[in-house]
């Protein structure tokens, strides 16, 4: 069983930065691709970024490309999302994911970006 716990959300002004963390448990979690998704108020959950099990490959949504960076530390079983140049439209609950959309999900952490 895999459990994911996100942290690092909060309130930040536009142009600011936040770093989200996802602590994972489970013996095989280091073999999974990991990702971040987000859900804004009144909208469906959307993809933000993914990273392969060995950090060899990363993908990003066009809306965050060049501003967000996903990384992982398999020894610590943690995944990170560094978010720079934040915009009000980045406001959402951010969810950590393991093993794809049919895999495992955390409960989310709220990011609010003010003008």
Given as residue ranges, the uncertain stretches (5+ residues, pLDDT < 50) are: none
Helix-strand topology string: EEEEEEEEEEE
Into which percent range does the helicity of residues fall? under 10%
Number of helices: 0
| Major sheet details | 7 strands, mixed
Shape: globular
Give the amount of beta strand, in percent: over 45%
End-to-end gap: 40 Å
Structural class estimated from helices and strands: mainly beta
CA radius of gyration: 13 Å
Q: What value does the average pLDDT take? A: 96
Q: Can you count the beta strands?
A: 11
List keywords for this structure.
single chain, 115 residues, mainly beta, seven-stranded mixed beta sheet, four-stranded antiparallel beta sheet, 11 strands, 51% strand, globular
